[in-house]
Task: structure prediction
Amino acid sequence: MQTILSSSQRATSEGKGVMLVRALKIILLLGLIGIFLASCAKFSLDAVDGTSGSGTTSGSVRFGELGGYEVFENRLIVGYEDRAAVDRIIEQLDAEVLIELPKLKAVSLKLPISISEAYQVLKKLKLEGVRYVEPSYKRYLVEPVKTHDEILLSPSSESSEDPYYPHQWALRTLKAEEAWEKATGEGIVVAVVDTPIDGEHPDLIGQFVTGYDPELGVEIPPDTDYEDPLNPDDDHGSHVAGIIAAKRGNGEGIVGLAYNAKIMPILIFRGYESHSGYYYVGDEYVAAGITWAVDNGADVLSNSWGGGGYSQLLKDAIDYAIENGVVFVAAAGNEHTDQHWHYPSAYPGVIAVGASTARDEIVGFSSRGDYLSVAAPGVNVLSCIPRASAEDGGVYGTPYAYWGGTSMATPYVSALVALLKELHSDATPYQIKRILEETAEDIEEPGYDRSSGYGRIDAAEAVNVDPSTYDGSVDFDVHVGEHTGTWAVPAVYVTLSRNDGPNYYAKTDDYGVAKFYGIDPDEYDVYIGGPNYLDMNAWNLRMAEELAIATAVGISGESSITVLLESSFVADLTADSTGDYTLKLVDVFTGSEAYSEDFSDSVSLSFPKTLPGGPYYLMVERSATEGSVTFEGTVTINGEEIPVSGAIADGETEAYVDEYGGAGYWWTVF
Result:
């Protein structure tokens, strides 16, 4: 498919010239019952300022991926423009409301059927006022690597104020004491989005503000022991909190990098009633927790969890945080693999964190990826665990333990963000991110690399930088439409790729817009991605080997580009007897004839350039009514031939063309 890039705002800086174009492709997935809906909400090619018309058909709805992902089988998240549209879905599916998210214009529903069954129902409906439907994906803590070597922690210590401070190698590596001469996190609130925390831990008590349990919809009072004392598997949040804000000079244990900051617990993992293990509460409750934290004074969101599955709801929640000046920090993962699918760390604007060692090397388990921002200490990190876990899980029976992982590296970055926010309360998330990146100690390969990002953070250097040095962040939109520009194309992955620095990923929404907030002004290649070959219900997933490239786009200042996809749909049919026939394209939703072409024995139809993309039935009509006739041939999309057939029985005048000879098969074209 050929793509046209046009700039309706000034998308290149002075002297860079107009944007050149090469071919881009979207390869359509052929399902058992057809090629699924691709065309979506209308938008004007002149309206590239983020405004769009409203979607009016089920083609305007983005369906989230199912195949290959773990999901909550009986939940459905609906993003809407018109809340009344959700009530119509509730009626159709006999569903119940789990949680309302009005600030994100979304609702989560409890279903009496599986989500795949719900998809099949909804794809047959005219879903006016609906932006997207998607599953609630199952995500996981970035599991720590636990070290039980008690030699690392002496029962006695040189420091009486913080006895185990000498064992915190990470603070020495980060030059914490130099940084503390400038800032300690005073007045800053870090939301720890994690498991329950022992708020009565001797090194943490007094370090909390009110938190939130979004699944139950209740607030967590400060200094509350909210964790299950019988469940050692939910100790993660306490360890993260200690790294950030364990008290200094209190005669107990360790010191947090931002020891004067306050912790806001946001509970998104809950232990089972059996006191064994824990579960993720779901994307809808996480989104509720994020918005609650933003609205209740959080300055930083620390996230040591993640997983696969692109959620528009989580993207909207993170955008809400960033737009409100809250810095979002997330662990890159402990999968070791080089990847670009781990969420929330791969969303635009997020500070994605890898784990480094005392030798300033990236540890083997730390995930690599072109979304990585910085690294931080993540091996043999000493921090708090709940008091109830001390006897079995703590070194020498104390409520402290050595853990490793990007889960531990992330709170060090969150704590350094707290120091910077204390010094520069008006600094934007982009400015904070750039300070961390520009002052990082370059490790691994010279310059930016996929293992360490810009390098290991340096607290002493970071607190000396004026954020106004980095005031040139960009909000950039990529509009994707079908070949006439009449309809937008949702659920397309868009990549902004460059040679030096993190790449950025987003997915087009129901208006066909992929939004990138607070990115670096730079030269980027634009990639369009698909399909999701794992999922017969949702029709694309960014896969690097199936992307094509456009020439570099210079991004400077707020800007947008529009990408139009050219149809490659061709239908070839041959009748087994000569007659008077008409090949028709019939609009799936209205049933009206969109195009017709007469033929006597064979026909070759390229999709008409004047028709907007969308779902169409392919139908043959004849003028005579006697005798039976069979049609066979192919439909070709992107060079791939799909056999099709149809038959008009004696006494009939028309037939839908599909692979099996039955009605109800449709083709989606761009």
In short: The first strand starts at residue 3 and ends at 6. Residues 1-59, 531-549, 660-664 have pLDDT under 50 and may be disordered.
